[in-house]
Amino acid sequence: MIRAIFTGIFLLAMMACRHRPTEQPEPVVPQTYTSFGDSAIAYAHPTAIDLDKDGALDFTVMIPLVMENGRSEMRFVVVPALGNSTLLNGNLPVSYAAGERAPLTDQSPLVWAVHQSPVLVAKIHDPATQLSHWEGVWKQQYKRSLAVRIKKNDKVYFGWIRFSYAGDDQEAIILHDAAIATQPGVMPKAL
After folding, report:
1. Distance CA 78, CA 178 (A)
2. What is the pLDDT of residue 14?
């Protein structure tokens, strides 16, 4: 009986010690990081973003007031500098959670759009009813990242800009931070 117990313990110990393949950690993508200190971006206060800190403007967050179909829209848009782009699903920006990765190339329906300025969220006011409401991908989003791509010296660098919706009572979005890979052609994980 004792021999059977020791044999059982020995077999359990051997099974516990057997070699198991270990998962290799994903390589960390070196990147340039910028904190914006949770800045509120509001109407008439555009914000310039220099992702790679080379002194050149890469993106601007603007809030134009647009009259369309008899109603006013305050649109929170990300405007890429010439040659830069954001990842869109149709004409809508794609929102990523921390740790996710975006594709490096177009993968239908996702497209790296060069000459488009995606609307993150818009406050829409209908003068006929005197009611306002919010629409857009970033409505009710907290600390979600927009995939971005910049072109520099004929090379492509990928990164992120992280925003939050400030709430229905605030006419702003929050700009948290941004990062861009320091190596061309690689996508870091979302912030």
Report:
1. 13
2. 55
